[in-house]
Amino acid sequence: MSHYTLKDIARPSGGFAMLAVDQREAMRLMFAAAGASLPVADSVLTDFKVNAAKILSPWASAILVDQQFCYRQIVEQKAVAKNCATIVAADAFIPGNGIPVDSVIIDQHVDPQAVKRDGAKALKLLVLWRSDEDPQQRLEMVKTFNQRCHAEGLLSIIEPVVRPPRRGDSFNREQAIIDAAKELGDCGADLYKVEMPLFGKGSQQALLSASQRLHDCINMPWVILSSGVDEKLFPRAVRTAMEAGASGFLAGRAVWSSVVGLPDSELMFRDVCAPKLQRLGEIVDEMMAKR
Predict the structure, then answer these.
(1) What domains can you pick out in the chain, each with its CATH number?
(2) Ordered alpha helix ranges (H), 185-225
(3) Tell me: the pLDDT tens digits for 200-252?
(4) Contact, 94 vs 117, CB < 8 A?
(5) What is the reported pTM?
(6) Is residue 163 a contact partner of residue 130, using CB atoms and an 8 Å limit?
(7) What residues are labeled active site?
């Protein structure tokens, strides 16, 4: 049985320039906020995701897709470029307390064997990290997920995202990102996808030292995501995180959020998003060359 390696989702430089289109109800909310006619139909999300895959995947080393809205269509339409690997989100989002993702479980409907047959190279799991929830449960879930991936020779990507505690204690996001990395940074996954410290704001020196602190806690290659980071600051965030030891990015919003709800999405992807993604890929290669 073939076992994929990180090279299979990386650029030739060894860095990662990966595109995420696996946002679900959060993307529906973005369309609503952009003035799309309500309710925002599933087909609106599917079309957006499939078009993104068709037009942007040539510029990405991998693309992260979700089964709920686009996986089947992307496979059937052969929407992903040959040079781009497919990663499938294997997390089921449970809404609650007025938010689209209040808790997460492993999605049993995502069959690792079947997605590998379809050509996918990796699975991704979102892990919500709250200081007042049981770390043992999180670790068990991640271990189970890693086993599911590795039993089929797929790569395991975990995405710890920090949330305020359930019981209104004070919340220090920056410390929580570090604490989550200390807990999950050596859990046996292949790649760690993490929130950018300081939302990518502040001086480069502050960002660099925050990213170095994070790097010291993660015992596997890691990449940053772009949620919460101003897209204008994201290229600098990638550069600075990589200077601290990151290996690239797996990001959606910094690439495509500015065109959500605009007409002619294919044209917008080509004119607005592709150059952003291309530039980010160049930054990744440039930073890898310095190693």
Answers:
(1) 6-289 (3.20.20.70)
(2) 204-215
(3) 999 999 999 999 999 999 999 999 999 999 999 999 999 999 999 999 999 99
(4) no
(5) 0.98
(6) yes
(7) 193
